User: What shape does this take?
Amino acid sequence: MQLYILFNTFLVMLGSFLNWIEPKIFVVALRGIEMMDGKLVFGFGLVGFIGVAYELICKKKQLNWLYGVLGLAVTVISGVVFFNYYQNNYNAGPGIYVSTLGGIQLVGSYVVLLLQPQKE
Assistant: This one.
């Protein structure tokens, strides 16, 4: 499960470096890392990536709640960005979709970890 979470945090970070706004006639293309929202999303992805790497190295499973919080934060930020783009008639680029997908999957993996039976 940690490898799946590691992949999703990588997706969140990768989406920050892709285009979030596609160019139009009076709109320039912007990558996620060029905006404050993208920097926040990248930071959340980096924190999750470091947490999962720590768990894989130390063979511990103690930061499961962190992935749910980070995934929820990424999903909320992405939702606000989507709503803003919809109001301003911008074309959303692939980066925002990749980051949103990673955030949703982080939340889903947290739910799966919650529903697994606990070993005593």
Remarks:
- The mean pLDDT is 90.
- The two ends are 19 Å apart (CA to CA).
- The helical segments are 2-17, 36-58, 64-88, 94-115.
